[in-house]
């Protein structure tokens, strides 16, 4: 579903931010990207979401890549990141309708989808409140609802549980599991180990723009030869980080 | 069709209740400066090259109509034809400017015209029939008509033979629609006719006298068809005020809406979401363009309709043409704002980047106004120019169909190019993704190695520059806006008086910028006797003060009206303090002025001429007195209360004092009689007031001093206030016959003389000592 082949990205000539990353994510799989701040997680995800182009290498979404398939790719991906914000003065209802129309969702389906999606996240009572009057958790839930408005087969979530309380986090992670069961391919970036351990079928640890380790949680622990995933992460980080 | 639905949705989003951005200021972008430099370069180029497009594209005229040409003049023309032929050969084809480039200098243009002059001979008995002369000049591309009396040659002979003493009168009529014609006429009269006058004597064997045999009387003539009364007023407004109003409305609304949509969404982080939808980039651009156009068209449509109705245009075609002109202009301006919005990341930087374009387009309007009656057809086909003239044409009842089509197409073509560029830009990640992620920041730090890059230093310089420009131009804009408003009723009432026509007549004869300035101040002198003017000015100053309170509150984010007023240097919490400081300030101002006059009396420059006020003038006197209160307060507010803290927020307090004082002086430099010494004096006075502001912490005292100074100077002693002639005065101070302008300040009034310098320097020393003392005690 998602295929990265030797992806490089450099903002300047002197330094590469992403130094050759390759991996694949299949339908019904949650792929976790784990790494410290500045490792290149966001850059990588923005490239997968077509917001940036790799300096070299190839990114394929369902066999599509490049500028000519841009809009087709947009139909296939749902991208959620902290940098995409909701218009603070708009309302969930307005925003949902606005994006539904931009995603060309037929008028007939629109209402059903909105009702279903709002009910699932408990947005319905707040549907006509201004965004900036809502709590962080509610905003995040609205963001998820809107970014998946077109039911995309590929879901890219950049730290979806960041700053959320345990209850809302659980709602989000449950939803991700449900999506996985429905056969969506999901890429997730996080630095919360419990989320990574619980959710991800496969994890790549990104250090300084390179994949330092990749595999299931068990495989990574085994590879690092320590007791816990957390310790494995630190060990891998120390071994691969260049001062 | 996703693109179409996307466009519709984005346009629709403009009309949903959406929020305003809480934008934070960011540094001016590189592009702002590039645009600004281009604007400056355009201005510079237009000064150097001003005659080039004029000659290239204007329907220039060189010919001269000669009415009742005497035989001697025809003969003289034939003789000189050889010289003219030679000249025009030297300069080549008069329309081939590239070939003539080397031969022509900046000031030579009229002389070249003389080389190409052809004479058109006409006869008439009506020597003053300027309507016919105007027609002849239009028909024959002439700028001048020379009218001889019927039997000119005979009259000259009679005079020479002592039969009559009368000098035959030669009349000249020149076109007024361009300043050039007046100079060309001067050239023709001074060189050609003078040569002819000396020639006729020798050629006809007449005796040579030291006086000229004939008299040349100048008159001007307007070649455009005459309209009068309300119609003329409406036409002038339709060709000047209405188009510029529509331009400004479109520019302003486009700037506020257009820069908000993409740059604003980038700033709020909502734009990426839209980019990720399967709506093509071109549809996003067109959607936003459409939204901006529709929103800006609403007020423009309203104003255009009202203007057309007021101008008496009830023809459906006129409305259609007008709307088309405005719509095309709106689309063009919107496409510029959208492009700028895409390039910038924040609303403020986008608006800063748009400002130079705003200024360029307003400058285009101003150049259009100057040549509105005498423009070349060529301009009708240009983008923007075409719209300006077109709007004026439609409102005055002419529809230039080819002009409408060509200028609209040209403008739309430009718009298309800009839109394509904008769409291209939206494909570049530089303009779509905020790369201020941790990675990017790290990369940047790594790259710069801790030192600030050239670009950063450049950005800082432009940032400082734009801060200065904004702070310096704000008072100018506010002042001119309200003074303009205050003038309208006065000018309208003045236009009904008989003096008006003679004033306009005089104004048409002025040759230099200096003349125009002097004329303007002359009319101010007349207005100062008019209570209506004084009341309007008072009102204007009050409005300036209120504007500043609101402005300061907005810029400095101050809530509460009392706090806003206090932030501008008028703290309201201590009534006693206000009363004492204001009272003392008034006293000080009075004493300072009296000392100045005292010095002038002692040194014998002036004498007191007794009481001057008459019962009839008492009304104007009272209004004039009242005017000085808000006048002093508004100037103190602009140059001290607001400007010093504004600069102090970013720079040392000395910068604020220095800049505000220089600007204060510069603001008065256009007044008549301004001298270098006056500028020094005004700087000194400004520094004195600024230091008093620093000493007292507010501008209550300086406002009173300012008011007292002007009032005492103008209305008690009756001297000029910064070049403005005083009209309503208690005492008449008469300049002595041996008065030295160095001491008295001449036409600028005492502020331009050494007497003021002396008084100000003494006060400055006192204030500096007090300030130093205060500094020591606070330490």
N-C termini distance of chain A: 35 Å
The total strand number of chain A stands at 9
Give the count of structural domains of chain A.
Answer: 1
β content of chain A, as a range? 15-25%
Rg over C-alpha atoms of chain A, rounded to the nearest angstrom = 18 Å
DSSP strand content of chain B: 5-15%
What is the helix tally of chain A?
9
Describe the largest sheet of chain B: 5 strands, mixed
Named CATH architecture of chain A = 3-Layer(aba) Sandwich
Describe this structure as you would to a colleague.
The complex is a heterodimer of chains A (243) and B (779). Chain A has 243 residues and is of the alpha/beta class. Chain A has one domain (2-85, 153-240): P-loop containing nucleotide triphosphate hydrolases (Rossmann fold, 3-Layer(aba) Sandwich). Chain A has helices at residues 41-48, 70-76, 92-102, 107-121, 136-147, 166-181, 193-199, 217-224, 229-240; strands at residues 2-9, 18-25, 30-34, 56-61, 77-80, 154-158, 185-190, 202-207, 210-215. In chain A, the strands form two sheets. A six-stranded mixed beta sheet of chain A has the order 5-6-7-3-8-9, sandwiched between helices. Chain A starts with a strand and ends with a helix. The model of chain A has no long low-confidence stretch (mean pLDDT 87). In chain B, helix 13 packs antiparallel against helix 17 (401-426). Chain B contains 31 helices and seven strands. Chain B is mostly helical. Helix content of chain B is 69%, strand content 5%. Chain B has helices spanning 2-13, 30-48, 51-57, 71-91, 97-100, 109-115, 130-139, 152-160, 179-203, 229-239, 241-268, 271-275, 281-310, 316-343, 347-370, 385-395, 401-426, 429-432, 438-448, 454-495, 498-509, 513-527, 531-555, 561-567, 575-602, 618-648, 653-667, 676-696, 700-716, 741-744, 754-778, and strands at residues 63-67, 119-122, 142-147, 169-175, 215-221, 606-611, 731-735. Chain B starts with a helix and ends with a helix. Mean pLDDT of chain B is 77; it is low at 18-32, 46-59, 95-99, 104-113 and 222-228. In chain B, the strands form two sheets. In chain B, strands 2-1-3-4-5 form a five-stranded mixed beta sheet, with helices on both faces. Chain B has a two-stranded antiparallel ribbon with strand order 6-7. Chain B is flat, with a radius of gyration of 32 Å. Chain A binds chain B through residues 11-12, 14-15, 17, 37-38, 40, 42-43, 46, 49-53, 67, 71-72, 74-75, 77, 79, 81, 83-90, 94, 98-99, 101-104, 132, 146-147, 150, and chain B through 2, 5-6, 8-10, 12-13, 16-20, 265, 268-270, 272-280, 427, 429, 432-435, 437-440, 442-443, 446-447.
């Amino acid at each position: 579903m998602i295929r990265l082949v030797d992806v490089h990205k450099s903002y300047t000539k002197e330094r590469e931010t992403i130094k050759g990353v390759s991996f694949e994510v299949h339908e019904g799989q949650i792929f976790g990207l784990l790494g410290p701040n500045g490792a290149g997680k966001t850059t990588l995800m923005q490239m997968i979401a077509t917001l940036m182009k790799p300096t070299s290498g190839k990114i394929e979404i369902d066999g599509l890549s490049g500028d000519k398939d841009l809009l087709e790719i947009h139909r296939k991906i749902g991208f959620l990141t902290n940098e995409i914000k909701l218009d603070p003065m708009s309302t969930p209802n307005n925003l949902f309708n606005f994006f539904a129309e931009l995603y060309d969702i037929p008028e007939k389906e629109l209402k059903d989808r909105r009702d279903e999606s709002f009910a699932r996240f408990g947005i319905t009572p707040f549907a006509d409140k201004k965004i900036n009057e809502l709590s962080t958790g509610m905003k995040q839930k609205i963001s998820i609802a809107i970014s998946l408005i077109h039911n995309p087969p590929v879901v890219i979530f950049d730290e979806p549980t960041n700053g959320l309380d345990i209850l809302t986090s659980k709602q989000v992670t449950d939803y991700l599991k449900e999506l996985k069961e429905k056969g969506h391919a999901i890429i997730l970036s996080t630095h919360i180990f419990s989320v990574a351990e619980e959710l991800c079928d496969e994890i790549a640890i990104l250090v300084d723009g390179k994949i330092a380790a990749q595999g299931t949680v068990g495989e990574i622990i085994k590879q690092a030869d320590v007791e816990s995933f957390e310790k494995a992460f630190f060990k891998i980080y120390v071994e691969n980080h260049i001062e | 069709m996703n693109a179409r639905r996307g466009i519709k949705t984005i346009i629709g989003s403009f009309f949903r209740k959406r929020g305003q951005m809480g934008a934070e200021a960011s540094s001016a972008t590189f592009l702002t400066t590039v645009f600004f430099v281009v604007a400056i370069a355009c201005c510079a180029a237009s000064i150097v090259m001003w005659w080039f497009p004029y000659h290239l594209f204007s329907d220039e005229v060189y010919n001269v109509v000669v009415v009742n040409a005497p035989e001697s003049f025809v003969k003289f023309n034939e003789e000189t034809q050889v010289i003219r032929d030679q000249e025009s050969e030297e300069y080549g084809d008069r329309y081939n400017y590239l070939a003539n480039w080397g031969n022509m200098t900046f000031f030579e243009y009229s002389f070249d015209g003389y080389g190409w002059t052809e004479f058109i001979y006409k006869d008439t008995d009506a020597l003053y029939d300027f309507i016919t002369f105007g027609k002849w000049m239009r028909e024959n591309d002439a700028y001048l008509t020379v009218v001889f009396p019927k039997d000119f040659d005979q009259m000259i002979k009679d005079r020479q033979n002592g039969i009559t003493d009368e000098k035959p009168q030669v009349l000249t009529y020149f076109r007024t629609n361009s300043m050039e014609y007046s100079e060309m006429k001067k050239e023709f009269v001074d060189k050609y006719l003078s040569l002819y006058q000396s020639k006729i004597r020798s050629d006809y064997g007449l005796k040579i006298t030291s006086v000229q045999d004939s008299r040349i009387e100048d008159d001007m003539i307007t070649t455009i068809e005459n309209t009068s009364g309300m119609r003329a007023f409406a036409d002038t407004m339709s060709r000047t005020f209405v188009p510029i109003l529509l331009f400004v409305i479109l520019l302003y609304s486009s700037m506020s809406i257009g820069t908000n949509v993409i740059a604003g969404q980038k700033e709020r982080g909502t734009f990426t979401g839209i980019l990720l939808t399967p709506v093509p980039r071109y549809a996003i651009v067109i959607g936003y363009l459409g939204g901006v156009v529709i929103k800006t068209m609403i007020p423009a449509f309203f104003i255009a309709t009202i203007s057309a109705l007021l101008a008496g245009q009830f023809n459906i075609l006129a409305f259609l043409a007008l709307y088309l002109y405005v719509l095309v202009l709106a689309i063009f301006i919107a496409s510029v704002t959208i492009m700028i919005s895409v390039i910038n990341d924040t609303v403020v930087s986008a608006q800063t980047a748009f400002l130079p374009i705003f200024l360029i387009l307003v400058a285009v309007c101003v150049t259009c106004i100057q040549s509105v009656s005498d423009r070349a057809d060529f301009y009708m086909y240009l983008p923007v120019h075409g719209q300006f003239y077109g709007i004026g044409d439609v409102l005055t009842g002419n529809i230039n169909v080819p002009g409408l089509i060509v200028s609209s197409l040209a403008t739309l073509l430009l718009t298309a190019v800009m839109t394509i560029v904008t769409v291209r830009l939206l494909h570049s990640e530089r303009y779509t993704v905020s790369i201020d992620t941790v990675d990017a920041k790290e990369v940047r730090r790594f790259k710069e190695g801790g030192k600030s890059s050239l670009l950063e230093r450049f950005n800082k310089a432009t940032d400082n520059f734009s801060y200065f420009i904004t702070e310096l131009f704000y008072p100018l804009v506010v002042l001119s806006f309200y003074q303009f408003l205050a003038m309208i009723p006065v000018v309208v009432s003045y236009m009904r008086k008989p003096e008006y026509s003679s004033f306009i007549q005089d104004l048409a004869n002025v040759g230099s910028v200096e003349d125009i300035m002097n004329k303007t101040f002359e009319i101010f002198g007349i207005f100062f006797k008019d209570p209506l003017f004084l009341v309007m000015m008072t009102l204007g100053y009050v409005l300036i003060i209120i504007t500043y309170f609101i402005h300061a509150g907005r810029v400095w984010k101050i809530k509460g009206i009392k706090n806003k007023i206090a932030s501008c240097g008028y703290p309201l919490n201590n009534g006693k303090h206000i009363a004492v400081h204001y009272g003392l300030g008034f006293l000080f101002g009075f004493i300072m002025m009296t000392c100045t006059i005292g010095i002038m009396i002692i040194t014998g420059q002036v004498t007191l001429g007794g009481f001057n006020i008459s019962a009839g003038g008492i009304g104007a006197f009272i209004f004039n007195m009242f005017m000085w209160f808000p006048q002093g307060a508004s100037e103190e507010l602009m140059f001290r209360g607001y400007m010093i803290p504004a600069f102090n927020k970013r720079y040392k307090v000395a910068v604020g004092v220095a800049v505000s004082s220089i600007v204060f002086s510069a603001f008065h430099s256009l007044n008549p009689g301004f001298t270098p010494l006056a500028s020094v004096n005004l700087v000194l006075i400004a520094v004195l007031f600024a230091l008093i502001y620093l000493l007292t912490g507010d501008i209550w005292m300086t406002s009173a001093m300012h008011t007292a100074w002007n009032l005492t100077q103008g209305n008690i002693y009756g001297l000029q206030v910064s070049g403005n002639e005083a009209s309503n005065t208690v005492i008449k101070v008469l300049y002595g016959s041996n008065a030295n302008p160095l001491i008295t300040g001449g036409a600028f009034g005492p502020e331009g003389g050494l007497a003021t310098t002396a008084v100000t320097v003494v006060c400055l020393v006192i204030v500096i000592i007090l300030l130093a003392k205060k500094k020591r005690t606070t330490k």
